[in-house]
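Appendix C reproduces, verbatim, an entry submitted by the partner laboratory led by Prof. M.T., so that reviewers can inspect both the input and the predicted structure.
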Amino acid sequence: MSVIHAIILGILQGITEFLPVSSFGHLCAAQHLMGGTRGSGALFEVMLHIGTMAALILFLWKDIRKIGIELIGMIMDLIGNANIFLYNRRTGKNLTYARIVTGTYRKLTALLIVSTLPTMLIGYQCKRLIVRTAASHMFSGIGLLLTGVILLVVDYSNINGNKGTREADYGDAMWMGICQGISVFPGISRLGLTMSAGLFCGMSRKFAVKYSLLMSIPAVIGAFFVEMGEFTSVSMTVGRGFTYILGMLVAGIVGYLVIRFMVNLVNQLKLRYFAFYCFAAGIIVLAANYI
């Protein structure tokens, strides 16, 4: 992979990550079309996602900061409840336990934890399959077509939910986590699939989009820790490491510049237009494999 390729792919990641069109599918297709090789598994794609994740953290910093504070508070309350349990067992008393989930941001934190568990399980179990499908010249195109179908079905279903953080339940969070796990395959849009799941669960579109973006952060961090061992693989060189980091920086900068516009676009534009784009992109990718 050349420096120019890394820059192009970084720009592509920064633009597509916050749209329901599968940035991973675009990356795999672009690498195939440019004649590049994927090198060390999915590490490069994960590095690009780390870059756009940094842009997302800056964009949602107020929410993420509150979630972090509440997460620490929940952990402290759990430790306190464990001490109370031991004390009650030892003394025979019946001291009251602290409520763990209280308030909007604690509820949001708990929902994100529930969503993360199936995502981690599916992603870890499917790691080898992900690498194989990403190496396929056809799977990205097929995945984009599937994404288009999903978005079109959601759009024409005229779903108008109004659930927010308080109204959403843990079943909703679990389904969205499962969808996020499934969307690790190229061409299947993570944002498109999780947002669609949220809408079908009765969430408002604005909350479904925001929640989908938030739940991607622990997923990307987890993927990075799984793949970071590739930095020490035999195939890794100083030059390759430099291009990976350069691509990550480009993706982060571009993502930071476009994220607000892209998120507003997803919130306001009818999903059918993203579906039509996915159909066109999928057909082009499939056709390019036979040229």
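The mean pLDDT is 90. Additional entries are available on request from the coordinating office.
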